[in-house]
Amino acid sequence: MKDFSIKEALSFGWDAFTSRVGFFIVLLLLFGVLTAIPQLLIKHTEFVGLRITLVIINQLFQYFLTVGLVKIGIKVVDGSDVKIGDLFSGGPVFVTYVLGAILFSLIVLAGFVLLVVPGIALSVMLQYYSYFIIDKNMGPVEAIKASAALTKGVRWKLFGFLLALGLINIVGALLLVVGLFATVPVSLVAVAFVYRKLLPQTQFALTA
Hints:
With about 210 residues, the chain is mostly helical. It has a domain at about 5-90 and about 150-200. Helix content is about 75%, strand content about 0%. It has helices spanning about 5-20, 20-45, 50-80, 95-115, 115-125, 130-135, 140-150, 155-175, 180-200. The protein is globular, with a radius of gyration of 17 Å. It holds the Pfam family DUF7847. Keywords: Membrane, Transmembrane, Transmembrane helix. This is DUF7847 domain-containing protein. InterPro entries: DUF7847 (IPR057169), DUF975 (IPR010380).
C-alpha cells in the first residue's frame, strides 16, 4: 500500500535546513530581491501597456526561478551538492514548465468554477506535475497524468501534509517574517522528499 510519513518528511526538511543554514538564507534573500525588483517596476509604471508587459515578464521570471527552487529541493533529497547557481538552472525545461503551469492552472480553475472542493482535490492530485517536468523531462500532459498516478491512494494524507506546511509557514510569517527563512526551506525539501518517497511506489510507467 502506497504511503509516506509526514513526520519523516518534515524531519528530513529540518535536518537539511540546519545543515545548510547559510546556503538557504542567501538563496531566499537572493530570490526575494530578484522577485521584488519587477514588482517595484510594475508599481511605478504608469503606462497600462508597459505595466501589462512587465506583469507577464515578472510571471515568467518567477516561473524560471521556481524551476530552480524545485531542482534544489530534489538535489538536496538526493544528497547531491547544491549551489546558488542552481536557482538559474531552469532554462532547459522552462518552456515545458510554463506550458505545464498553464495547463495545471486551467484544470484547477475549472475545478473551482464547478465547486471549491473539486478545485482543492485537483490541486492536491496534480501538485507534482512540475517535478515530473523538471526531474523526468516529461511533457505537460504526461506530467499531469504522472502526478495523478503518483498521488493516487495518498491524496487525503497529502492534503493533511499541505495543511501542515501551510500552518508552519504561517507561524514563520508571524515570527516577524524571519521564521520564513527556516520554514520555506523545510517545506521545499519536505515536498521533494515526499515526491522521492512516492516515486518507487507508483504504478505509472515513468520515463526518464
